Amino acid sequence: MPSVTTTGHRGPPLEGARVAVAGHRPSLVAARSLFETFGASAPDPPSGCVGARVARRAGDLVVRGPGGGGRPGVPGAELVEAPGPIPPADLPAGVCDAVTGAVLVGAALAGHRAGAAVRVDAARVAAHTLAPRLLHGGVAPTTRVVPVGDGAVLVDGTVDDHDDFDRLVDLLKADGTAPLDADEVARRAQEWRLPVTPFRRWRDAVDDAAPDPVGGIRAGSWPASGPRAWRAPDRCREAPLAGIDVVDLTVLWGGPFCSWLLAELGATVTKVEPACRRDGMRAGPGDGTGDGTHFSLLHRRKTVADWDLRVPADRARFEEAVARADVVLDNFSPRVAENLGIDPAALRRLRPDLVTVSMPAFPIGAPERDWVAYGGGIHAIAGFGDRGDGRLRAAPFAWPDPLAGALAFATTVAAVVGREHGWSPAHLEVSLRGAVELLAALPTAPREPYGAAATSWDDSWFDAPVTVPTVAPC
Hints:
The protein is 34% helix and 13% strand. By secondary structure, it is an alpha/beta fold. It has a 7-stranded mixed sheet, sandwiched between helices. A 5-stranded mixed sheet has the order 2-3-4-5-15. Strand 10, helix 10 and strand 11 form a beta-alpha-beta unit. Helix 1 (26-37) crosses helix 3 (95-114) and helix 3 (95-114) packs across helix 4 (122-129).
């Protein structure tokens, strides 16, 4: 399962929910695995069944494959499949399916709140997963593969990070006390807080993976608790996530993707972005508006708050927002939140039933827990750079980011809905390293590349992938 971990003694947020996932497409398999990880009952449908038959037996919510069908009025999500962008051949197989599966889970749970069926467009999910390649495919990646000894390291980050890494390597070579080793060079680079990770061989990465890998949410991490009864959905909501306030402390891609999906389903999202530390995604290739195109896509429907938490007046505004909020998201490195005095325990003193979700690079208990890494580094250290031919390749783009963002979206909505059904919120984590484990749950080999194919551009691909049919007023 993906690495969603929780701190605190609470059962899973969806315990007691009955879910029908109608179909065997890879994205539906991923959705079923995630529902079960969150504590819901989501049995496999018979191998020859059709979606309508499963939907007729649905309990609290249903996820339908293309075509829908089944008993009307059952809330959940419906997968819509239309011709979409073709993933590049150098992207691990199943990435778009896994992202779609996670979006289906969050959409279905949001639909339950409103008594509606949320549509999830797989083509649009794929477009947002492939956004760097589709929006500005000619831009060189910010990563490079550096051979070290018998292996290699992946160097990510800014130009300054790359320059600092080169200086570090020169110092290590000048020292000459021991032959250079990829793991040791990465460890020394991390002491300089540089986003450098070693390439691991595929077999070694699989052997060293955490037990029970399904997207990083470990089923055993939820302590047992008593069963809870699920209430009927509220059919009088303006939008599935209406009334949910989110304070978003995330930057770059994965976290903002999560909070954008929440906003598209009706949540109120406040992005904390002080002018002294702007989101690095703003500097990406743009369309003349002053901000990167990708940044603009991910920040529709959000309010940006220029709050520097080191300034007392801004800190007070932030704490007032947290006291009203339902969710706080962050993708800080470990210890950053504690150093700022905004760790989950401190935030929960402002609102005891607050849902807190963090998106670090590595999960609790991992040897690299305190390391700095981005999506490209996770690709390398998780074994996806090993294509089995003796060569090591960098990621085509930071694909673990949208996967972790979609998982954080599903986790956040599961926590919000679970809280409304009696679950006591805990602190939740969705790590980049844990998120890629979801690929192991799919009926495809994670290293198998997609076949390359050409397709025409569709301007609708970058519309919101989640939509809600018009619901008659109460």
